[in-house]
Design brief:
The protein has about 550 residues and is α/β, with parallel strands linked by helices. The chain contains 18 helices and 18 strands. It folds into three domains: about 240 residues, Rossmann fold (3-Layer(aba) Sandwich); about 200 residues, 3-Layer(aba) Sandwich (Rossmann fold); about 55 residues, no CATH class.
């Protein structure tokens, strides 16, 4: 294939490339979703792999698709032009009828019916490679597939085993990889997962909340194929880690609980500051603690949002994406033609006689309902007033909400504010691991630029709602005490309060679903966060720290 980069020469796609090579060892694993951010090289990897497969096995029939794809193009259907001309049903073949391997770009644009057709294709033994942007909401991956993320490091053993160095040409390097794959196919039958490893995998599945038994059998295949590719005599820890990452993690319904950290009795405990003591100026990083959110209020607020916006996020009508819910006249618009509705309208036209003739005003289009999911926007106060205890509780509460977002496959974004201005720490993404790592590493110290933080969050939320039509939920962690003006300069309590009041009026007009989480301990709540919640039109929630 001309115009594509060779698979063996691509950099920065190591983990995803390894998952694809493992799929060539065991063809029943060759259903891989490549996820990553925009510009991470997903399409280059998919096209390079397509070219690689054609070189590796010339008998494999490969088809490339660009979403959105009409389900009739995948599975075939009635050729209406020839059917009307011959007055007998003429069926046209679909792409999946003649393909052994299908490469689909932009998985997030596929309709549910197209995904079901591809799932059936995989169940029949076909191979499927798809790419999806992490920033865009997209449906879950098929039940019998594995998933690989871009940007992860590849183990050094891969190229060491095939004896490659920078002086070897592309052709020689490909031949080495071909040899490694053929050798792995001959070795895989002699490898098995022991009872001890199976018990460990069952424990991991319980910790991650993986449902069903299909993932277990798929994971065992991935373990054996990975071990065979690295020419191991027995299954090892790195084989288990690779398979868990590709099979169990995408199917997880909850994040595993963090390990408990024991505090030495000799370690001095932080002394509580009095109300008049100065705030720390240096930045400090504290670990998150386990917290308890006001669950009844959270459930009530989320139920009200679900009743007004749909059960699992926003939905809107579309002519080319989502589930078909109705039809409408084309009226010069482009979209997917509703064949049955078009023929029915033409047949019922007064004076119509066989054969049926279709006029432009008879054309009906399918109307789809697209689910866009939700965006959880975390706005975290990291100022000096959020000293150790409050910051630890805020991080724990943020991770708890993050687990809910992960379960619902929603997107997350993080805005932190401290010093003189806020900062977008994590742009909208579906990578919960990236968001959690950012929260755990978030330092605290400096002033509280609450006004500019709310302004940044409002602009981000409004932009996301306009561009992606996602429902945006803002989670604001703060004690409600601000001391920095919108321009980044320190201000008096009266001037800061005036700017916050004006910002709150703008916020209420936008109608953003907001939760304000008061980070101050229960015995020291002064009402600042509650007053802020009332001004924003937000739901006020309290958090109570617990010992891990």
């Amino acid at each position: 294939m001309s115009g594509c980069y060779p698979l063996v020469a691509l950099a920065g796609v190591e983990h995803a490339r390894l998952a694809l090579l493992v799929g060539l060892v065991d063809p029943r694993l060759l259903s891989v979703l490549i996820g990553g951010e925009l510009g991470s090289g997903k399409s280059a990897l998919a096209m390079g792999f397509l070219d690689f497969v054609r070189r590796f096995d010339a008998d494999v029939t490969v088809r490339k698709l660009q979403a959105p794809v009409d389900v009739e193009a995948l599975t075939g259907g009635v050729d209406f032009a020839r059917t009307l001309a011959t007055r007998s049903v003429v069926r046209q073949r679909g792409v999946l009828d003649d393909a052994d391997l299908v490469v689909v770009e932009h998985w997030q644009l596929l309709s549910p019916s197209a995904i079901q057709a591809l799932q059936a294709f995989v169940e029949r033994g076909g191979g499927l490679i798809a790419t999806a942007n992490e920033e865009s909401p997209h449906p879950d991956w098929i039940a019998s597939g594995v998933r690989a993320e871009m940007g992860a490091a590849e183990p050094s053993w891969l190229w060491d085993r095939i004896a490659w160095d920078r002086g070897v040409s592309r052709g020689d390097r490909e031949q080495d990889v071909f040899g490694a794959l053929l050798s792995a196919r001959s070795r895989i039958d002699g490898l098995d997962v022991g009872e001890a490893e199976r018990r460990d995998l069952e424990t991991v599945a319980l910790d991650l909340g993986v449902r069903g038994h299909r993932a277990g059998s798929l994971l065992v295949r991935a373990v054996r194929a990975h071990a065979a590719l690295r020419r191991a005599r027995a299954v090892g820890t790195e084989d288990l880690e690779f398979a868990i990452r590709c099979v169990y993690v995408p199917r997880a319904t909850r994040l595993p609980a963090p390990p408990a950290e024991s505090q030495s009795s000799s370690e001095p405990r932080p002394r509580p500051r009095s109300h008049g003591s100065p705030e720390p100026r240096e930045s400090t990083v504290v670990s998150p603690s386990s917290v308890h959110l006001d669950e009844p209020r959270v459930r009530a607020a989320k139920a009200a949002a679900a009743r007004s916006r749909g059960r699992h996020g926003s939905t809107h009508s579309s002519l080319d994406r989502g589930r078909c819910v109705s039809t409408r006249r084309a009226a010069g618009q482009r979209g997917h033609v509703a064949i049955a509705a078009t023929l029915r309208r033409a047949a019922l036209r007064p004076g119509q006689r066989p054969p049926v003739s279709i006029r432009p005003d008879d054309v009906m289009l399918r109307v789809h309902r697209l689910h866009t999911g939700s965006l959880h926007l975390f706005v975290v106060d990291a100022s000096g007033s959020m000293a150790a205890g409050a910051m630890r509780s805020a991080k724990g509460a943020a991770i708890q909400v993050l687990r809910r977002a992960y379960t619902g496959r929603d997107a997350v974004a993080i805005v932190g504010f401290r010093g003189t201005k806020p900062e977008l720490l994590v742009p909208p993404t579906r990578s919960v691991a990236r968001a959690r790592d950012c929260i755990e590493r978030l330092p605290a110290g400096g002033g509280t630029p609450l006004v500019s933080a709310l302004d940044l969050a409002a602009k981000l939320a409004d932009r996301e709602r306009r561009s992606t039509r996602r429902e945006v939920r803002v989670w604001l962690w703060t004690d409600g005490r601000a001391n920095v003006l919108g321009d980044g300069t320190p201000g008096s309590a009266e001037s800061v309060a005036a700017e916050i009041s004006e910002m709150c009026r703008v916020w209420r007009r936008l109608g953003i679903v907001t939760y304000v989480l008061d980070t101050r301990p229960a015995h020291d709540k002064r009402g600042d966060a509650r007053q802020l919640a009332d001004a924003l039109g937000a739901e006020y929630l309290g958090i109570t720290a617990r010992v891990l």
